[in-house]
Write a structure and sequence with these properties.
340 residues, mainly beta, 7-stranded antiparallel beta sheet, 2 helices, disordered N terminus
Amino acid sequence: MKTPKRSWWLVAVGASMLLSAAAQADKRVATDLPTARLVAIPETLPESIAATTTVAGIFPALPPPEQRSRDGHYAVSLFLDRDRAEAHRRGDFSRFTPPAQDEPRRVAGPPCFVVAEGWSIQHRGRVSPVSAVQEPRISGVAKGSPAAARGGRPSGIAAVRLEVLSLDGPRGGELRFTHALFDTTTLGMQQVAEGSMRLALLAEGPGEVRVLAARDPEEPLVHLVITKPEYQGRGVTYLGRYARAQLGTESAHGDCGHLRLSLPTDPGIGSQGTVVIEVVEGDLPKLPGADVPHDQRPIVEVSVRELRVSVSASQSSSDAAPIVSAGFSWAGKAKRRQIY
């Protein structure tokens, strides 16, 4: 487990203890952070987008007719892999199932889809729409019901952003994003903009969870990206599957590789957010080989625990610039999970 020199840890849970330890959190003056700006979604949306219009790297797909409900309702999904999109159209994902003999390991989580304009995001969980600034929007696959599946009502245009996070060790990382508009009826996609933001490493906690940060050069905002590891291999694919975020009155759940929160940094106004992620404590265990009969395998347990990541931005009268901080605490007791 890697622990930054200034990181703080709370074994007990409680608001008073959280506040008393806040001074020990990893902090950074906002003006020391790299600058990055997210491109805004256009205020004027087209009435429709031709089906022949596409965006590189994003593949819409409908389920096969036999998997649609009798009343004609179904969902259209967006994928990052052409083969997976084709498999979805056929209703066959068997070849994408991880081999059972794979040794348990911790890997980087998948890219994230951010979908606006009233769509929900669904993949191993569900995300409700939130405001333009408060964006804990997360998912590996975006889903929504096209207008044609809702009885021919007027077409809807969804604003879609694809976010791909690349980590760079102690230097932080880079978040690359593509903005697009998606016609939920024709399945046409129109690219609006693309860009990237450089992120500095603010803090690192258990389970290789990291907090990265950048500031907006034009608006009083700081962008925080919290990484969520994923576990692959025999018996561990269900561990740490979900993360949940709370930002003011907004909340969300998701399953992709990171959560991005945008906090206002107006003078005299403090803002904060919380992300809870289930992590495996310590190293993943070694399992018996696939040649060992199931009834002869020993019971192997891992310790999992919910990690609370608390982030905040504030500027008091004595601060020359906003202060951005991040800290970690345990959100509950450790639990033992059996894997085979």
